[in-house]
Amino acid sequence: MFSIFVTINVLPEHVEEFKNASLGDSEGSVRDEPECYRFDINQDESIPTRFYLYEVYQDENAFEHHLTTPHFLTWKAKVEPWFVGDLDIVRMNTVFPSTSGWRAQKPSLLNF
């Protein structure tokens, strides 16, 4: 399994809009992409303009496909002007849970 951890800083006046727009990408990813197994959005408690995305995909090809989906492209067009600085993206190979573990938990993510 392939995962990424993304750190995003946004303009203070767009924090709520960023959260709302990001929900569409997150929900679309787990609902519409069979090989997306997780898409978490987290907001830093001490720096409320900082967000962390944790995403898990079957492999890098599934992640590259994600970058072409309508929900991602809509999200990117809307939120990119609100970014402060560059994104910090860490690319990882998932050790635990196992591939079968990720697949088993995916149906529960669709109950949002």
Q: Can you tell me about this structure?
A:
- It is a single chain.
- This protein is α+β, with helices and mostly antiparallel strands.
- It has one domain (2-109): Alpha-Beta Plaits (2-Layer Sandwich).
- 41% of the residues lie in helices and 27% in strands.
- It contains four helices and four strands; from the N terminus they run E-H-E-E-H-H-E-H.
- It has a four-stranded antiparallel sheet.
- The two termini are 23 Å apart.
- The mean pLDDT is 94.
Question: What's the structural blueprint in terms of helices and strands?
Answer:
Layout: E1 2-9, H1 15-32, E2 36-43, E3 50-57, H2 60-66, H3 70-79, E4 88-93, H4 99-109
Antiparallel strand pairs: 1-3, 1-4, 2-3
Helix pairs in contact: 1-3
**Main beta-sheet strand count, sense and barrel state:** 4 strands, antiparallel
Shape annotation:
globular
- Fraction in helix: 40-55%
The count of strands amounts to 4
Largest sheet: spatial strand order: 2-3-1-4
Order of helices and strands: EHEEHHEH
Task: Average the pLDDT over all residues and give the rounded result.
Answer: 94
Distance between the termini: 23 Å
Stretches with pLDDT under 50, minimum 5 residues: none
Short characterization:
The protein is an alpha+beta fold. It has four helices and four strands; from the N terminus they run βαββααβα.
